[in-house]
Amino acid sequence: MQICKRLCWVIIIIMWGSPYALLAQEETPPPDYFVEAFVSDSMPYVGEQILYSFRYYAYTLPPNLQENLPEFEGFWLGEVDLVGNNVDTIQNRQYIVGELYAEISPLSDGVITIPPSNLFIPESVFNNRVDLDTSSVTVQVRPLPENAPESFNGAVGQYTASLEATPMSITLGEPVTLTLTIDGTGDLERLLAPDLSEIAGWRVFANPPQYTLSAVSGIRLGQKIFQWLLIPEQSGTQTFPSIEFTYFDPEEEVYKSESFDPFTINVLTGQDNRTSLAERDQTNVDTDVAIQLLPITGAISNETGQPSEMFWSLWIIAPLVMISSGAWMILRRYRSRQHAKYKRLNALRHALVSLKGLQSAPSVKISIETPKVIYTYFSDKTGQSVGYHNFIQLLQNHNLPRGFIETLDEYLTEAAAGRYLPANTQIDMQPLIIQLVSTLKLIDEVWIDPS
Amino acid sequence: MIRFSRFIPAILIFVVFGGVSMSQQTVEEVISDAHVAYDSGNYELAASLYEDLVNNGFANFEIYYNLGSAYYEQGRLGDALLNYRRAQMIRPRHSQLNTNIIRIRSERVDFQGDEVVLIDRLATLSERSFSLMEISWAVFLLWSLLFFTGTVWVLRPSWRSRLVWPCIVLGIVVGIGFSLLLPRLYTSEYRSSAIITDLAATVWSGPGEHYLEIDQIFAGAEVRVVEVQDGWARFVRPSGRQGWILQDSIEMI
């Protein structure tokens, strides 16, 4: 009896290959790797999206591990993704658990078997070759109930829908954008838009739909947006008929519909008082409405929308003006410096010429002109305007020896005294000129240019 | 039944003046005849008359628009989109034109999403709102203003403290302007927008029929031509996929 029990265990382990079966044998250590595969619902409806999961348990995680999913024949294969690795402890042994899932939806009813998935690790220095298959997964696909409403076009899942039309007032020829947003769980990739192709009085142009998927707390939610451009064929208040979105809810096992009421758009006539598109339709040979031509008035020139080569040459003007201004400023500054340098180098010569001219002049004139000669000399030397008010300060700033400053101050005082002599009084100012000449010569020798 | 006798003057003008320059008066007559032909449902004649105007240098927004409409009514989506896109280069914000372009894009065989190449995306971003002329002039004026401020900076050293912020702001605005303008100029020079005008064209892996046949592309598909070689054009689809096509099957915008 005992032998029979043990034999049963071994058979179960071999056939099932489950880790838990292996762990049940206390004397057998748990394997380094094992795998399993399962579906979220083994009895889905046709078109219902289910998740196929392939899970592996690895004692260590080699970098060259390969997961191979089967061909999902008989299913529409949606997104395939890898859930991040977790750690799990089984019989006091830690495993790294990896999970791959695939979104699949059966295309027909009946029994469909999904072949095994495979985990393969090539042999390396650190580990032996591992080649493990899961068991096959059998899915019993149920057909959809037969009482489907007319508006049902294959949507299976749990959805909510919203509809928006903008703007609600347009000029004839302009489009209204109609947006149908569907949120929920299901095969959004294959979800079809409600049929709006034949709406009397409207021309309908569908934009390519967009869909996004996201996982919230393990539940996969998605959104699909359908958009149409609606162009009314006549002006006035135009009504767009109701829209119905029908889907089969596999949880409640019923067909559900979301209906949107008809809406009206205020269509204004164009400014050019064009006949309505519908009127043109009647006059045309074609059943389709021809596009309205634009009136062409006035002289026609060749418009390309491209600027001419002449235009590009204008771009150089502004930088050229700035560069020219900069160059002019630099030149002006250079000339100014050159002029100041010339004046500085020739300051003594000019002063001596002026003083020589004063030698035969009356004493009053000498008294008046001598300070001017001094101020001009220092103006030329310093490049700054020099006068009675800043004379001493300026010489101090240029570190002229104090003795020279005092001597010059004395000359200025003497010259000032000469200016206020009684009329027809002559004093000899020649010594002043001679002393000034020698003083200026001495100053010129010791003068240090700040530059 | 369309009476062709109505179009004899236009056809005569087309024959006599085809290939030679037209006077303004002739142009007005051709436009009038093209309108009449279009309204009568003779879209082929209308298109050929508008095409003749374009070939003679009389091309403006309205003529490109009407030419595109004449091609559209013939079911020639590629030629229609080509001329609408040419019109869009002149007036990118014309609502009726943009509606027609959306219409053709929804009707063509090839589904084309947004462009994946960054420079193409930048160029397309501004193409929808501004013509190259508008952007060029706007950036030119800002550029001139920046350099005018710079000139004042140079000439009036005493004003420099007051000119710091205007210079910074203008510099940033000019930078933004260039980031819109330069991709447009680059793509117009090296990645020209083009439209497939053949109803269906084979895409090859190289410039010749001995190369691998990789795909088919259909009228109205919008691509960018990056190379032309011996009657073959290498193009890039918005998705970034490339291929070679006979140059006769494709028309630059």
Structure description:
The complex is a heterodimer of chains A (about 450) and B (about 250). Chain A is of the alpha+beta class and about 450 residues long. Chain A contains ten helices and 18 strands. A six-stranded mixed β-sheet of chain A has the order 13-14-12-10-16-17, with no helix packed on it. In chain A, strands 1-2-5-4 form a four-stranded antiparallel β-sheet. Chain B is of the alpha+beta class and about 250 residues long. In chain B, about 55% of the residues lie in helices and about 15% in strands. In chain B, a hairpin with a 2-residue loop joins strand 4 (about 220-230) and strand 5. In chain B, helix 4 runs antiparallel to helix 5 (about 75-90). The interface between A and B is large, with 39 and 50 residues.
Defining traits:
heterodimer, A: 451 residues, alpha+beta, 4-stranded antiparallel beta sheet, 10 helices, 30% helix, elongated, B: 253 residues, 5-stranded antiparallel beta sheet, 7 strands, 15% strand, globular
